[in-house]
Amino acid sequence: MKLVWSGMGFVVPVLAGLLLIVTMLGLDSHVKDDLWVWGAMALVMAAVTLPLGLFVNSASRRGGRGGGQHHFMYLPLQYWGGLFVVAGIGLVSADLIMGQMDGPAEEAAPCAAIGETLAECTGLPPGGAAMLQSMCEAGSPEGQRACVACVRGASDPCNPSGCMQACRPQ
Description:
Elements: E1 5-6, H1 11-26, H2 29-32, H3 35-62, E2 71-72, E3 75-76, H4 77-102, H5 105-108, H6 112-118, H7 128-137, H8 141-153, H9 164-167
Antiparallel strand pairs: 1-2, 2-3
Helix pairs in contact: 1-3, 3-4, 6-7
């Protein structure tokens, strides 16, 4: 039976496992869903495997034992570094592109902030937050921002009665 790795090739799965554990245990759940996190992890893998592969495989050539001695899954260690660079740049780029397509969350739906701000208020009449939110959504983008700013800046956020005028569509 032939081994899956030779020489320092074991570094690839060991490092991948360690980074995966650190990422899963060390980050909030909403951050783990972002592609840039996985892209950064791939770039860290590349930062270790590429120079290590170049060093150990060039050293084995100098020693006369032939190149490509250190491999994982029959690929030399430095090739894994190159694959991780491509994967990391691809994931980070995809995250940036998707983020630009979505736009900032507040810009996409600024009136949703009213529902979040008023969600914990118990003294509001039934549907009060929904009414303000629907009034806000019917307004222009400038009016929407003014409405949200009024509700957030109210001295009593649970009674934003002064905001009816700001939230009324123009």
